[in-house]
Amino acid sequence: MVKIAKNKLQKPQAKPENDVVILPPWRMSDEPAPKQVKWINRQRVLVFATRGINHRHRHVMEDIKKLMPHHKTESKMERSKNLYVVNEISEMKNCNKCLLFEGRKMRDLYLWMSNIPNGPSVKFLVENVYTMAELKMTGNCLRGSRPLLSFDPQFTKEPHHMLLKELLTQIFGVPNHHPKSQPFFDHVYTFMILDNRIWFRNYQILSEDGALAEIGPRFVLNPVKIFSGSFGGMTLWENPKYISPAKLRQAYSKKAAHKYERRIEKKVLYESTKPETGYPDIEGADFFKGDPMEKAKEVVVKEEESEKSSEEDNLVENIAPKNKGKAKPDMAIRRKQLKAKSKAISDQIKKRKQFKKKKPLKCPH
């Protein structure tokens, strides 16, 4: 009875102002946890591949998974199955978007982007693939952070580009308040249109003034077809400039097949246009033929004759010689120099002849 009286004598607790809800100091385990209401955009992307992709394509798929914290994975799909099965797999995984990597001949990679279950869907040919591991760029970003999406202004000009822009935005855009995402914007995805292809790049935002550093991966998406349904249906748009990689390889092999014929044609053309007479001989080419001593004497005699004729001309004209630069050496010194040069040339020729001769073999004792 005393305890009850004490409780009655206690003052009533004052109600908090402004209707502030005060949480209890403890909570029973049977009570359900409060749900997060902020996560409204429930986008989930299923990323997986078919059998037949090589190691390079698998690494690109893993890089894309790292960039998308809202993705879900699935084991490889058999190639014998129809693509409509992907819709059922996505619904079982509770995904409303899908990225399917399809390999052909262990060298070609196709990428399907689809909106589950009603479409539309797009088929791309993936070209110029470079993974994060082989690029080794300096850029880096927090795993799970939300990216900024940057699109080329050409995406707003054509209707099929506008559709691709909306599909890429819904697939690569990380939803706000996603449980596996981080509330930061530290990298940006750029989608550029060049040569009728979509070029993908991933950059780190270094500072607020716009400084960027590339992270990777790199790839180019060549659109093939746009379908009204998910992995099928009516064709909404088809790329008129698309050429399959098999046809390109076939054209290259045909071009290489006629390599021998082109070489023979060039040879015949060269023989037909070849000039009959060659270039004239160089003056003084016979100087190095014969005995060098005799050639040197002939040169000395020619120089003496030329000097005598020049002296006679000077005497006739009565023109005094003008000293330009260094004075000419006397004839005796000139002859000695020529003799020394001719002797050096003859010594070199003798040494070459001796070097070419084989040394006699020594008989063993």
UniProtKB/TrEMBL annotation:
Compositional bias ranges of the Basic residues kind: 350-365
GO biological process: ribosomal large subunit assembly; rRNA processing
Matching InterPro entries: Brix, BRX1
Brix domain location: 43-232
Regions of compositional bias (Basic and acidic residues) in chain numbering: 300-311
Pfam families in the record: Brix
One Gene Ontology MF term: rRNA binding
Chain segments carrying region Disordered: 300-365
Keywords: Nucleus, Ribosome biogenesis
Cellular component terms (Gene Ontology): nucleolus
Subcellular localization(s) per the UniProt record: Nucleus, Nucleolus
UniProt cross-references to PROSITE patterns, sorted A to Z: BRIX
Protein family per UniProt: Belongs to the BRX1 family.
Function field: Required for biogenesis of the 60S ribosomal subunit.
PANTHER family, per the entry: RIBOSOME BIOGENESIS PROTEIN BRIX (PTHR13634), RIBOSOME BIOGENESIS PROTEIN BRX1 HOMOLOG (PTHR13634:SF0)
Record protein name field: Ribosome biogenesis protein BRX1 homolog
Organism (species): Diatraea saccharalis
